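Please review this pair:
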Amino acid sequence: MNPLLKFAALTLVGTAVIASPAFGALKEGTHAPDFSAPAYLAGQPFTFKLADALKKGPVVVYFFPAAHTSGCNIEAHLFSEAIDQFEAQHATVIGVTAGNITELAAFSKETEHCGGKFPVAADDGATIAKEYDAMLLLRPGWSNRTSYVIAPSGTITHVYSNLSPKKHVEETLDAVRALNR
């Protein structure tokens, strides 16, 4: 095979694998791993416990690569703009990251990001992201941009994985609404 064609084929396959939605992520119907993690809401520290949040209703756990990076800034802002819609469905939203965790207190309260409307959790060492198979292939130690909707029973009902931040809110909100029908 021509070396140029071989390179093009390998590039195409590699791009498809990296861009593949839910590549490596836990699948729908799987029981979500329980976790607790240090978190911030409007700059205030607390411990987020998935089990406690599930007692109130569905939980959207969205993994993002790092605070104060362009795509993560957009995604956090989109979630903050939609938080009233999630709350109307009795859903809790929690962002989880292993990247730039020392910046999460500020990130959680800044208007252009979370705006104090939902918490973000520090995943030191990416242990939670590993349990959820939400690791960023291009940057080891950071989480991928993967969103999960978890039913109060602890079952994952929806998974969306895409490095583009633009559809995570729409995908998870639609899944939460479907869960509540």
Q: What stands out?
A: The longest strand covers residues 36-41. The domain at 24-179 is CATH 3.40.30.10 (Glutaredoxin). The radius of gyration is 16 Å. The mean pLDDT is 89.
